């Protein structure tokens, strides 16, 4: 259900960008202006040293999430996750990725595996903020690229699909729940 919303939203954003970009002109003045113009960047290229960091910026600043950041970049999701959101990201640590069979991460980072990588990362992302009352025992949530996750509780500890949420970090565009395991989407 969430995928149906995200794809049209991304297509709309591309259409708006394409319509706002001036058409190419073959004149010398146009060529000169084009060659000196700064390259176009998405939301991730916005420089803002005043606001609280977004989910991507928080992950980039964490030494424990460098593998996740590499995967987000390889999947082309930096701009999407830098947008207003709000998002909930279940963020596996580097140690979580190290638990996967040898060669799995390297294989997923290959360009021909981009779709698989997007699906896995989308299974770690929810559109909306899941915290407090929304992290109650037995609740299930549809993730961005399909599949549901189930929240369970044991005392004060919260788990997603049986994986403990070890820390929670608030970002400007959502929340990050740090987990020590990679969530695997259900088989299609």
From TrEMBL:
Keyword Disulfide bond included in the entry's annotation: no
Pfam families (UniProt xref): Fasciclin (PF02469)
Domain FAS1: 52-183
Keywords: Signal
Segment forming the signal sequence: 1-23
InterPro entries named among the record's database cross-references: Adhesion/Biosynth-related, FAS1_dom_sf, FAS1_domain
GO annotations of cellular component type: extracellular space
PROSITE patterns per record: FAS1, PROKAR_LIPOPROTEIN
Keyword Signal tagged: yes
Protein name (database record): Fasciclin domain-containing protein
